[in-house]
Design the sequence.
């Protein structure tokens, strides 16, 4: 084996690849290639032996503060959600005002009862409206916020 | 917590476990800082990158797949941030020479070990100056391989390149490093 061929394999050998018998034989005879191998190993050792950096106290504290924000439960309400809830509440309130107004004017009689539970119709209607209108904020926010809002592409 | 593998810790992080986050931080904060510093030679920017990498990882904990390697995922995040910073610097037309000098100054500041001989310090200084002068891929593979002790397969995953290519990058990087160092390496 010639030095040129040996040098091609030396880096792999230095990095821990299994040496071929030819390389080992050549290294036994060739001081130049042995020196080259040593220099690769020395460079790798220097790269690896430098002490690993440690974060300073202020860097650790800064990271801890950032992580507090990540770990905190996300209960923030967006303006669109507030708007949706406001609409739902306003619609329900308006419905109740209209029904009570009509009752006061004598156009309807809210003491009508439903079924065996004797629940006034106005209460049933108010609850139904409340449920339906409560979906408005959910619909608004579902369009804008993905289920898993944290996506990362590699 | 200390005995749990990274991937299980991440599953706990996804459930909001602060203890699991702290354990991941204790394992990787210094490593990420070192990785970024060796690439950029700028402690402040590197601290930001290390912090941002961990925060992004925790924010994305819910989308992390358990069958993936957390380590390569985290280093991929950090490498993307380093590349962004590198591009920003290029746009600001900071010369390569100043970046190399930055690494050089950084080594000087980070290598106060009294037990290290002057020769060792000089060799380390020369070595890191030479590493700083390598191309981006060569520089990155050397740091990931020898500083962070990632396998070829892990480096390939981090860099999005075939492992055979990574292996040849490591070999060429070492060869170029040796050529750049000249006779100095024999004294190490």
Sequence:
């Amino acid at each position: 084996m010639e030095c040129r061929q040996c040098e091609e394999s030396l880096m792999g050998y230095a990095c821990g690849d299994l040496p071929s018998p030819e390389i080992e034989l050549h290294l036994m005879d060739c001081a130049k290639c042995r020196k080259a191998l040593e220099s690769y190993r020395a460079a790798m050792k220097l790269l690896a032996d430098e002490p690993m950096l440690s974060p300073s106290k202020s860097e650790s504290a800064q990271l801890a503060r950032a992580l507090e924000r990540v770990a905190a439960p996300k209960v923030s309400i967006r303006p669109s959600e507030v708007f949706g809830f406001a609409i739902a509440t306003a619609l329900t309130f308006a419905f109740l005002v209209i029904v009570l107004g009509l009752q006061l004017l004598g156009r309807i009689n809210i003491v009508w009862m439903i079924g065996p539970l004797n629940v006034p119709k106005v209460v049933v209607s108010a609850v139904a409206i409340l449920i339906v209108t409560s979906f408005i904020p959910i619909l608004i926010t579902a369009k804008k916020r993905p289920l898993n809002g944290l996506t990362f592409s590699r | 917590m200390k005995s749990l593998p990274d991937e299980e810790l991440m599953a706990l992080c996804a459930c909001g476990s602060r203890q699991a986050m702290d354990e991941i931080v204790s394992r990787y904060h210094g490593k990420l800082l070192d990785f970024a510093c060796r690439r950029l030679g700028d402690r402040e920017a590197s601290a930001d990158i290390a912090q941002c990498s961990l925060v992004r990882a925790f924010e994305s904990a819910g989308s992390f797949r358990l069958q993936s390697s957390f380590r390569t995922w985290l280093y991929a995040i950090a490498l993307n941030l380093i590349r962004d910073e590198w591009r920003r610097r290029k746009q600001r037309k900071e010369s390569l020479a100043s970046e190399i000098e930055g690494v050089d100054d950084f080594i000087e500041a980070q290598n106060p070990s009294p037990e290290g001989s002057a020769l060792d310090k000089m060799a380390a200084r020369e070595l890191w100056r030479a590493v700083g002068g390598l191309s981006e891929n060569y520089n990155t593979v050397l740091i990931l391989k020898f500083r962070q002790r990632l396998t070829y397969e892990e480096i390939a995953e981090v860099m999005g390149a075939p492992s055979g290519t990574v292996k040849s990058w490591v070999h060429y990087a070492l060869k170029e490093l040796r050529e750049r160092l000249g006779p100095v390496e024999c004294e190490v």
Notes: Chain A touches chain B at residues 11-12, 14-15, 35-36, 38-40, 42-48, 50-56, 59-60, 62-63, 66-67, 70-71, 73, 148, 150-152, 154 (CB under 8 Å).
